[in-house]
Specification:
It contains four helices and eight strands. By secondary structure, the protein is of the alpha+beta class. It has one domain. Strand 2 and strand 3 form a beta hairpin.
Length: 159
């Protein structure tokens, strides 16, 4: 069939309609991928924060440095100066166990070559807040908040 002026006239505006139909799913996919990336970034930040705090505690004598470790986990520094590493993160979400505060599980733990004391830093109850939230009518069309499970790091403490 030949493209006559009559057939071309019928096809005018088809590309705009196709674009309108495709743009909504594409934008939803882009926002979803972006938010998933943000959630993974914040989760990774919290994992590194617990690791840094546990590494600090592993060099301290039992019972000392607990508040400093909490500051390291929340602020990334020992003095609690500046912004938190993740929005909404508080020192109340950070729990610390060492051989004095959790003697049943962290003091003189047997290994294949003797016994060691352990330190554990855990972040619990952190909720990732999506940056994409909007309401259409009475329906919340934004992405839901995600509460991460406990994020924990355990290391050997100096004796």
């Amino acid at each position: 069939m030949m493209n006559t002026p009559f057939n071309l006239h019928k096809q005018r505006g088809v590309a705009a309609i196709e674009f309108a139909l495709v743009i909504i799913p594409m934008l939803l996919m882009v926002f979803g991928i972006t938010e998933f990336g943000r959630a993974m970034y914040q989760y990774n930040t919290l994992v590194k924060a617990t690791r840094d705090a546990a590494r600090y505690l592993s060099t301290q004598p039992a019972g000392s440095g607990l508040a400093t470790a909490q500051n390291l986990a929340v602020y990334g520094n020992k003095t609690a100066v500046g912004n938190t590493l993740a929005p909404g993160l508080t020192t109340g979400m950070v729990s610390v166990c060492d051989s004095l505060s959790c003697p049943g599980t962290h003091a003189s733990v047997s290994t294949g070559s003797g016994s060691v004391n352990l330190v554990t830093v855990t972040i619990q109850g952190f909720q990732f807040q999506s940056a994409v939230s909007f309401t259409i009518g009475n329906v919340n069309a934004g992405l839901p908040s995600i509460t991460f499970g406990p994020i924990s790091t355990t290391m050997r403490q100096v004796l």
